[in-house]
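>> received
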Amino acid sequence: MEKLFQSVALVMHSEGDKSKLLLRWQEDHDCWMFVVADRLNKESFRESVTREVAWQLDLNRETDFLVSSMAQLSMEYFDKTNAETQTHVAVAFYCVHIYRRKVLESLTTDPANRWMSAMEVCQGKTANGQSIHPHIVDWINKWSVVQPWQ
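>> returned
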């Protein structure tokens, strides 16, 4: 049986009364994607997402951001893609809060990053039609992790 154990970082930033979510451009997938971490050996889901946020966004995990102590949502299920293959899937969504304005500015000015509305995420595409990785969008919509009006 295959295993897919991942943590998804919901890096958030408030703009007025709406929150924006940070996604990164993934050349190899030709789409925008959340910071996603594969869980390694004895690592917790939280440890994995903390590691990956620090690495992918080039942030200091001690001074630049905080990963919530508990997952916003954790789901576990068995996905049967065909008669012979079954995948054990476990996924956890963690809110990530940026501490400092300087860090927020550096994330905003990086062309590989983009702040997106909850509506864009739920629709699976940006306002200008670029795709957001469908696998994560499916999870978000299936379990109402993010609401379009947020």
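>> Residues 25 and 32 are 4 Å apart (CA to CA).
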